[in-house]
Amino acid sequence: MLINEAYAQAATSTQAEPSLMSLLPLIGILVIFYFLLIRPQTKRAKEQKLMREGLQKGDEVIISGGELGRVTSVGESYITLEIAPNIEITVLKAGVQTLLPKGTLKNIDTGKGNKMPKNNKPQKASDTQESDSEDSNATSSNESQK
User: Which CATH class is domain 27-107?
Assistant: First the structure.
């Protein structure tokens, strides 16, 4: 009986008070988290906002869908893009992802002039099936030799 009371008294008197040193690792993790994740993201968001506010007529941009175009008019929250000759679309300013250097649209290869060389003709479906059957015959003969 006396022993149980002694253990109970010892347990209540040995409780340590929380110190600032026990919170130091948590504070360190929060500081690292801020500098590695939060600060760069807010910096990028600020740069995007400044870029969108600075859009002018004639700028070349890429919008969120991947379309490239030249700005023809700028409104409060919308811009009009010319994506092809005489084809214009109206999009939100928030949809603009990247501001391209001047003259980029002229230098882009649209793929219209790409033609296959004469000696590289596309294969017919029957040619492809024949080559597949030859490949399967070759692999089955290799397996039988093992």
Answer: mainly beta
Whole-number Cα distances in Å, 87 to 63, 81, 90, 97: 15, 8, 10, 20
74-84 burial, b at 16+ Cβ within 10 Å, e below that, comes to beeeebbbbee
**φ, ψ for residue 83, nearest 5 deg:** -95, -15
Containing H/E element for 78? strand 78-84
In order along its 146 residues, the chain shows pLDDT tens digits of 556 666 666 555 555 667 778 889 999 999 999 999 999 999 999 999 999 999 999 999 999 999 999 999 999 999 999 999 999 999 999 999 999 998 888 888 665 555 545 555 555 555 555 555 555 555 555 555 55
Tell me, what amino acid is at 41? Q
Q: Where are the domains of the chain?
A: 27-107
Whether the predicted model's global pTM rises above the 0.90 cut: no
Indicate the pairing of strand 78-84 with strand 87-92: antiparallel
Which residue carries 């004639």 as its tokens? 58
Residues 6+ away with beta carbon under 8 Å from 116: 122
Between CA 58 and CA 106 the distance in angstroms is 13
